[in-house]
Amino acid sequence: MGAFGMWYNAIARNGMRRSRALGGCLCAATFFLLGLHAAEAEAPEGFPVFEVPGFEREMGLMRDLFRLHYEPAGPLIPLWEEWMSMSTLWPAVESEGELDRMRHRWAKALAGRGMNTDGYVHTHQHDGPAHSEGWPFPLWAQAGGIGWHFAPLGVPGYEAPLTTPEEWTLQGAVPGELLTRGWHVRLEEPLASIAPPPFAIDSGVAPWLRLNWWAEGLAGTDCWVEWTTDQAPEFGPERRMAFSGVGGLEVEGDEGTPNIGGRDQRTMIPVFRHPAWRGTVTGLRLRFGNTGAAQVVIKALHTASDTRHNINNPNWVRGCCHYFLWTRDLAFLRDQIGRMRKAMHFMMDEFQTRARHCVYTTWPGHEGRSGIRYIDGRKELVRGSGVGSNYWDLLPFGGEDALATIYFYDALGMMADLEEAIAGHPEWAIPLGHDAFDPAELREHAQELKAYGNKRFWNPETDRFGTVDLDGNLHDYGFTFLNNEAVYYGFADDAHARAIYDWMSGRRLVEGDTSTGADIYHWRFGPRSTTRRNIEYYFWGWSSPESIGWGDQVQDGGAVLGFSFHDLMARLKQAGPDDAWGRLVEILDWFEKVQAEGGYRAYYADPARGRGSLQGGNVPGGLGMDREFFESILVPQVMLYGFMGMRPTPQGAELYPRLPEAWEELRINRIYLHRHILDIRVRGTAIEITDQALPGAEPLGLRTALPFTIDLHTP
């Protein structure tokens, strides 16, 4: 279901109840804006114009599409970092009278991304009863874990049943009231402890423990979680893991009521790393490190699936690179380069990329294996298997992860260029410490990934890429997004890129596929996400995929508008500008019809018309283009990055235009590069640039290749 999966979850409360939850209510106002008809939304001040003489209708539609999806755009979470930054940083749009407002938003968001001590970049999606630094589902209840929630989470659709502490056991502590923020407990004796009632769970479905809490008198202390198993029924030091005490409470006087300040502290404990966290776990105990009186407020204690995303780091790094390339904000780079390097080192170490030559993911549940197995024709659900690792949150990417490897490959190239620029500009005063990378080594490593991936992920039977689990099994359902991105990012070698184009364009039919030839573009605005029916390769919570028709689920024969950008760019690279333009015209014709009927929601309102069904805003469906599908803004970027061939650099920009034969010229204005607003016109082999230099602007370095020439004008 795109990045925010629509799924059904079973939560235990007096038995099992069936409920529907959607992860994606980032902002109700955002959803409202994206429901607008394009003509109803006024263009922001100075919104860019696309001009091609003789194609005014098409260019108007292109601008309308861009404008429609620009309205709610900007920084979201690391999952979208690469796509949104490249789409929103270049328009010279004034917001509330301020030209740099979008830049300020990006600088603040990128610098504010959470990163743990290892260097993992947090996911930053809304909260859920899962890993606090990961995706909000699968929930612990879906996995068959255990949990106690004393206060609501605050996210509709993700709430767990509330409980009371009557059956908890306390030592050296006195229970307090159960109030709106959680259960208050006073710790009166050193090393006080609290323990929930006994239970029995499989340790394999509970790789993490999560404690949401506040405390006073515990900052700087070592606390412990201890556990018992069916084979070891007594608590002991051989079965425990440490975690750090926190703050967040202010208490006045000996009997004062604690004042809870700020958001709860979210402590994640990786119990799966302990060799004694095995078999059936039957009990937990929290032993605090207090040496005197202290207080805690427990909001929740529960097990958690490992819902971290292995694509966060390369996506965040690429977002930072895009930001710097468009803005040349040296203060930002000076401040963030250490974190960028740390994020890249994390990828290399955590996923063994230097030894494995791919993103080798061994996190619990991310082994690339499906959570649905068919044994002797009978379906079995394997709880804890097939957890999503990226945008495609129902699909079990992981193990030898093809998509994450492609993203990391691209990040290596961008980071190499950045390190080279830093080394070549000592006047920037960017730190060159022990963690700095050698650009040549980064590029060499990228080529190692490409060489390995073009063998390991390539399916010789279908002539396209799939992904590989830790058992060595290749999974290939005709992932069009995976293959188009492999071409777009230059990961696919020439032969494989050509084979992918032949398959996508219908020149080559793949035996066994559900969709072939022209039907791959059945939805008109872009290719199906997959071309082969999939009823067995999902995380275990998506337990009845066979009950949903082909094309009625985004990740099984459906489609996402935004990823037409990669399809267009891949076509431009492989078949040339005329082919890409022909595909784009079909998209624009579709968009015109959609707008004529009142917009996306009106056009797809009646499924009986056979147009498909929209997902979004608590409604499942097979097509993603509005509401939580923010990446739709990518499609218009083919004008700047594709046909105009613009690439920002630390010095300025490179331009390598590729215009369709039918185009006499192409003009794009209001391009905000560094401290310059550019108006660029490509006519024949001449690139004419009008440069409006803003205060503080430094000269731009502009490059192209023969037969093109650049003529720069300043008003």
Tell me what you see in this structure.
This protein is an alpha+beta fold and 715 residues long. It has three domains: 6-122 and 309-640, Glycosyltransferase, CATH 1.50.10.10; 140-304, Galactose-binding domain-like (Jelly Rolls, Sandwich); 646-713, Sandwich (Maltose phosphorylase, domain 3). The radius of gyration is 27 Å and the shape is globular.
Structural class: alpha+beta
CATH architecture classification of the largest domain? Alpha/alpha barrel
Our Rg estimate from Cα atoms comes to: 27 Å
Runs in which pLDDT lies below 50 for 5 or more consecutive residues are: 1-36
Strand count: 34
How many helical elements? Answer: 16
Q: What's the main sheet like? A: 6 strands, antiparallel
Gross geometry: globular
Query: Which CATH top level class of the largest domain fits?
Result: Mainly Alpha
Look up the CATH topology of the largest domain.
Answer: Glycosyltransferase
Estimated helix fraction: 25-40%
Alpha carbon gap, first and last residue: 49 Å
* Average pLDDT metric: 93
What is the domain tally?
3
What is the element layout, followed by pairings?
Elements: E1 6-12, E2 16-22, H1 28-34, E3 50-51, H2 56-70, H3 81-88, H4 101-111, H5 140-143, E4 147-149, E5 169-171, E6 173-179, E7 182-187, E8 193-195, E9 201-202, E10 208-216, E11 222-229, E12 240-244, E13 249-250, E14 259-260, E15 265-269, E16 280-287, E17 294-304, H6 312-327, H7 330-350, H8 353-356, E18 359-361, E19 372-375, E20 378-381, E21 399-401, H9 402-424, H10 439-456, E22 458-459, E23 464-465, E24 467-468, E25 474-475, H11 480-488, H12 494-504, E26 559-560, H13 564-575, H14 577-596, H15 600-603, E27 623-624, H16 638-643, E28 646-648, E29 652-655, E30 665-673, E31 676-683, E32 686-693, E33 701-703, E34 709-713
Parallel strand pairs: 26-27, 29-33, 32-34
Antiparallel strand pairs: 1-2, 3-30, 4-17, 5-8, 6-7, 7-17, 8-16, 9-16, 10-15, 10-17, 11-12, 11-16, 13-14, 18-21, 19-20, 22-23, 24-25, 28-29, 30-31, 31-32
Helix pairs in contact: 2-14, 3-6, 4-6, 6-7, 6-9, 9-10, 11-12, 11-13, 13-14
